[in-house]
Every structure is written in C-alpha cells, then in structure tokens.
Specification:
This protein is mainly beta. The chain has two helices and 48 strands.
C-alpha cells in the first residue's frame, strides 16, 4: 500500500524502535500496516506496536483473525513527530486487525519471531532471594493470610499473634481455646473457622472458634459432636465446612466426619472410617470431597445424606507420611514428598491425578531434586508450586537432613527447578504462606520433641519479582458472584496475558487446608479488563482470594483481595 510522506517518518521510527528492542539476528522484516491516523506493526512473540497520530486519545477495537481474542485498547494522543505508541500483547497467535469508527487497518501478520530473552545479570532473576531471619513471637505452627493482608499465627506456647507485613508490628489476638493442633479454613465471608484444639498430646477439643479479620477477635461457635486433635477442615461449595479425622478427648481416633452448616454440626454416620491425622482433602469439581492422602488409596467422600466413601485410585509410591498436597488447577491434584514407612527415608517423588478425567489415575510427574518430609507446598500466583523446608533424613523430623533449597514445579512441563536456599532449619511444625505482594512467608519449626523453637521467620522473593516492571491493579471489586462479569481497572491492560485467583492460605503440619488456584478468562476493554468469574463454586470454593495480573514476562502484580460468593 502506498504511504504518504506524513506517514513514512513515524513508520521508520517504529522500525528503529523494534530493531532496538529485538535481538540483532537476521530475520524477516516485521509486518506493518498504516491507514490514516492509525498504524500497527509486528514486533516479536505476540507483541504489536500500535500508533495513534491523532492529536486526541482514542479507543480502538482489535481482533486476532480466526481466534476469539478481541477487545478494546486505549491509545494516547500522538502527532506526526511524536506518535502515541502502545504495545499490545495478544493472547492468541494470528494476524492482528485494528479498527475504529472512522477507519480499519488491514490485518497485520504475526511473524512468529521469538522475543529476545531478557538479559538479567542478577542471580535473583533465576533463583529468587531470601531475607535474613527476623523475630517472630511464637513458633508459627499454624499460619494464615487474612483478607486484611495481615497474617495470623499461633503455636503451642504463647498467644495467637497478628503480623502486619507492611509495618512489621505484631498484635496479640487472645483466644479462650488452646488452638494448637486444630483444623482451619476460611468461610465464604472471609472469617476463619477453627475446629478442635489441644487438651493434651493426642487429646482434642470439641471447641469451634471463628476469627473475624476486621475486628481481629474470636467468637465461640457451636461445638462439634466429637472432640478433634489434628483434624482437617475443608470448605464445601455451598459454604458449609467438613471437619475430618483427629483424635478425641480420650485419645481415640474419630471415625465420623461432620459438617458445619452455619449454626451447628451434622454428623456423617454413614461415612465412618479410620483416616490418619490431617488428611489431605479438597473439594472436587463434581462436588464431592477428594481424599488425596497420606494413605495410598485415594477416595471421594460424598457428604450428602449420612455420607459415604467411594474409592478412586491408588497412588504409585505408597503412603506419603508428612508429605504435602495441592490442587494446582480445578480437579488436578499433586502429592509430593513424605515417606513410607512413616519413619523411613523420605522420597523426592511427586504424583498427579486429574479428577476431570473419565477414570482418574495417579501418575508420576518429575521428581524434586531433594527428598523431603515435613515440607510445605505453596501455590504461586503464576500457577507454579513452590516447596520449602523439610528434611531428607529418615525418622520423624531429623534436623541433620534439613533441606534449605526451595524448589518450584511447573505444571506445564512437569519439571522442578532449584531456587535459593533459606538459612534456618525448618522441619516439623514449619509453615509457608503466599503474601499479597507475591512474596512467600516461611516460618515455624519446633514446639515438638527434640527440636529447637524457631522464634523467627523468613520471606522469599521468587524469581518473577526480578524480571522487570510489575503490572498494577488500580481497582477491582471486593466481592463477585459466580459467573459474573466484572471489571478490573489497570493501565497495563495491553501487556496482561493472564489473570489468576489463589485462595488465601491456612496451613499447618505440611498441608494448606485452604489454598486453591483458578485461571480467569478476560477481555480487554477501555481502561482495563472485563473478567469472567468462575462459573461454579465447586471449581473455586467461596471465600477470599488473591486476584493477580501477570504480563507476558511472567511478572505478577501486587494482588487485590476479592471474595467469591
């Protein structure tokens, strides 16, 4: 297409800009197109440069030909000598078409040229970075990220404490119940429900306590039918809560599950079963509760009526005593580490299962570099899984085998990568939780036999925090309904390629009883993103989540707090 003299100069500028931003190798010239006061040129990857020569800002529509990827982009004002340039990263690969009410560009081809790898000299960009240990008033055996962004913790000795990551200040949150060795998860309204507690070693309590993150105070709720020490507490799709396993006030195993229904408890007498301490359970997409371990045989718990167990599949390794587990995508579960027999040498293996399949079956994924038990597995905002701490030595919790290197698992490749090492031995009673700014709080270890009380914590900054500027959320709703479309305001909409949810963490004894991950679909609109909430509560249980934007470099925003109702 013939170009006027007034257009050639900006086009040359765009080509110079692309040459400066891409690697100096011989490759085909970028595709480009220009009509009137709009221009578009391909850069690399799925990146295009959009140009506005108009003296007024404008909103244009874009679409990737042959794909569902389309939306609106705000273009700042420009001129003949100073074009308003905007980089757009498309979600799909294909020719890009730009149009406005006045004009329409011919589609510009995606040249399928790889973008140059960011040259980063600092090792943090590949390994991450740990802070030095800093004081913590209790051994953080139980650790929870609150919807306020503050962190609640407690141990065997001392009172519960609320930590402000911004100021570093701790505030006591006194409870009338000994909360040590309880189960816990967040309710749909963002409060933390805590079931059971500590009467003595092996002997539990019937107590139920609810922590309000706004007033930072406790309220006693209706007691359970059974005392429980070491139970797991799991949120269900309707907002009710399952309390499973543990030992009672007589140190006897509790075989009967029960359900919190908002004003009391319902026993599942038809589902009596002997399940080891702190079972690794998750709400599955089919509405049942999936038991992933520690035992080799996994199963569904149907909580309707009087309840019943339905066998699913047996894992390959065997029992994973003090291994960890995560549901890293809706219906997809990983179990990792642990040992069989319980006091034997730990394993470095990991297995995954897809509950969405017609016949779910466990299969091995890539192994960790280091064998571990007493480890923590934490979901990151980019969907990867971070493991921290633990020991590679035989026995219950032998510090001589303490593992300091963290590792991250990529669900796309099934492989692990070794990251930076922390300083403190963190084994039995250690905990790890994701913070809103994308860093990881790692604390605890001790308050157990033969172990020093680690009254300190460390914070890990993953590599994604060293890969360039972060996208930013200007505003987002505080709560949304299932299936609802909602808007996230951001000036970085054109560079955002992913939007994720991570349910707030509530962790103890090598297992986070609350965290979940979901990826959200979105469409770019003027001023931000139009986002689609998860369609069903079985895919993302009700309650508080971290909402995060990620750009095409994999860099996350600081998360916004949002509640699914």
């Amino acid at each position: 297409m013939k170009q006027s003299a007034s257009v050639r100069k900006p086009a040359a500028f765009i080509l110079i800009l692309m040459a400066a931003g891409c690697q100096d190798t011989v490759r085909p010239a970028p595709s480009h197109g220009e009509v009137g006061q709009l221009g578009v040129a391909y850069v690399c990857g799925n990146r295009f440069e959009l140009r506005n020569l108009s003296s007024s800002s404008r909103v244009v529509h874009y679409s990737v030909v042959g794909t569902p990827d389309s939306g609106e982009v705000f273009l700042p004002a420009g001129s003949d000598t100073d074009p308003g340039l905007t980089t757009l990263t498309t979600l799909a690969r294909g020719a890009l078409e730009i149009s406005s009410e006045e004009e329409r560009e011919d589609p510009v081809e995606n040249g399928a040229v790889g973008c140059p790898t960011l040259s980063v000299e600092q090792p943090q960009a590949t390994e991450g970075e740990w802070t030095a240990p800093f004081p913590w008033p209790v051994v953080a055996v139980h650790l929870h990220l609150l919807p306020s962004g503050r962190v609640l913790s407690w141990g065997r000795i001392g009172t519960p404490e609320v930590f402000d990551p911004v100021t570093g200040i701790f505030t006591p949150a006194l409870s009338s119940t000994m909360l040590f060795c309880s189960g816990h998860t967040f309710l749909g309204d963002g409060r933390l429900l805590v079931s059971g507690g500590h009467l003595d070693d092996l002997r539990g309590l019937r107590d139920v306590n609810i922590f309000d993150p706004v007033t930072e105070s406790w309220t006693r709720a209706e007691s359970m039918s059974f005392a429980r020490w070491y139970p797991t507490t799991t949120i269900l799709g309707d907002g009710s809560v399952l309390s499973l396993a543990g030992t009672d006030e007589h140190a006897m195993d509790v075989e009967t599950p029960e359900i919190w229904v908002g004003n009391g408890w319902r026993s599942l007498d038809g589902a009596k079963s002997l399940v080891p301490y702190y079972p690794r359970t998750f709400l599955a997409p089919n509405g049942l509760v999936f038991y992933a371990g520690e035992l080799q045989q996994s199963a569904y718990l149907d909580v309707s009526g009087s309840g019943r167990w339905v066998p699913v599949a047996s894992s390959s390794y065997g029992r994973r005593d003090y291994g960890s587990a995560v549901m890293y995508q809706p219906g997809k579960v990983m179990i990792v580490g642990g040992s069989d027999p319980p006091d034997g040498l730990p394993t470095n293996t990991a297995e995954v299962i897809d509950l969405n399949a017609g016949q779910p079956a466990w299969r091995y994924t890539g192994p960790m570099r280091y064998a571990r038990r007493q480890l923590n597995a934490t979901l990151l905002p980019d969907g990867q899984v971070l493991v921290t701490g633990g020991t590679s030595a035989a026995g219950f919790s032998d510090r001589s085998g303490a593992v300091h290197a963290s590792e991250v698992w990529n669900p796309g490749t099934g492989q692990w990568r070794v990251l930076a090492a922390n300083r403190v031995d963190r084994v039995y009673h250690s905990t790890t939780v994701l913070l809103p700014d994308g860093r990881i709080l790692h604390a605890g270890s001790g308050d157990g036999p033969g172990l020093p009380r680690e009254l300190n914590a460390e914070i890990f900054s993953p590599p994604y925090l060293f890969l360039g500027p972060r996208p930013a959320i200007a505003s987002a709703p505080s709560q949304v309904r299932y299936g609802q479309s909602f808007e996230v305001v951001t000036r970085d909409a054109t560079s955002v390629v992913r939007l994720t949810l991570v349910r707030l963490g509530s962790v103890t004894h090598a297992f986070d009883q609350s965290q979940r991950f979901a990826e959200l679909s979105f469409r770019r609109v003027a001023g931000g993103l139009s986002v689609q909430a998860p369609p069903a509560s079985t895919l993302a249980p009700p309650g508080p989540y971290l909402l995060t934007l990620l750009n095409d470099a994999g860099v996350p925003s600081v998360s916004a707090m949002i509640s699914l109702r």
